[in-house]
Protein: 2-(1,2-epoxy-1,2-dihydrophenyl)acetyl-CoA isomerase
Organism: Deinococcus arcticus
Amino acid sequence: HEPVIRTELKAHVLTLTLNRPDKLNAANDELLLTLTRELQQADAQAAVRVVVITGAGRGFCAGQDLGDVSGRDMTFTEHLHHTYNPLIRTIRGLGKPVLTAVNGVAAGAGASLALAGDIRLWAQGASLIEVFSNIALIPDSGSTWTLPRLVGYHRAFELMALAERVRAEDALKMGLCEHVFPDDTFRDDVQAYAERLAARPAHALKLTKQALVAALTSTLDEALDQEAILQQVAGDHWEHEEGVGAFKAKRPAQFVRE
Ligand code: T3D
């Protein structure tokens, strides 16, 4: 049968495609656990320099598969600890950039996943809905943490309370995504963007992500100390030598060595 996560590695870009298109890629446990495992494997694979998460068909991810909830032998708390929380933590902790390529509607935990990318690329026809309150649940999978940091407490609360649909143009203005690409060239535009990122110094980007993630919950003093530690790690790496050498020789730096 069709895999719930399709994987494709091309030019150092690993694309993980949520693949339950008939349900707008609503998430069941198999999808969530497989996605998390694929991400963890990608972290250890030198050939992967950038990871893209996207959806098959017209949706990105419609959140929890509501057909899968009743009769489940786990509490909500247990289920979040088992599936969604490890996924979001894995994305945040991954030593490589994770792009969420939001090709269509992102709802509920699918919206949380869309927001969890290090860089978020949207198709013109994509949209995001904090849909949880429609079924009288609370936003999870990190939405309560991420969204207010992007749009402030009040706008976040309004989006959550009314389950308003945010379309691409507004998402860009609100800082929910970095770029919007036309629908008909979206997959190619995402691949081209990801390949550009894959040519950047992977080790320095890993440390940059680590420092930024830590700084989001630290004081300025802690961030300054952390920078001083990680700058040493960056400066001791061959990428730094290559970057400076290329600058002096007035040639492009070559950060990809395998
Ligand atoms: O631990 C826990 O379980 C708690 C965790 C919670 C995390 C969550 O994500 S809670 C939120 C769950 N998601 C939703 O409530 C979203 C439900 N879906 C929708 O509101 C709408 O489908 C959308 C707004 C996302 C898209 O609307 P539209 O009109 O573009 O498409 P549609 O016709 O509603 O959906 C197309 C098909 O996908 C349809 O199936 P059908 O009728 O063609 O056979 C629909 O039932 C199915 N589908 C969409 N979302 C889900 C789904 N099937 C199961 N679960 C879904 N979430």
User: Anything to note?
Assistant: The mean pLDDT is 97. The pocket of T3D is lined by residues 23-24, 26, 62-67, 69, 76, 79-80, 105, 107-109, 129, 131-132, 134-135, 137, 140 (CB under 6 Å). The two ends are 34 Å apart (CA to CA). The chain has two domains: 5-198, 202-248.
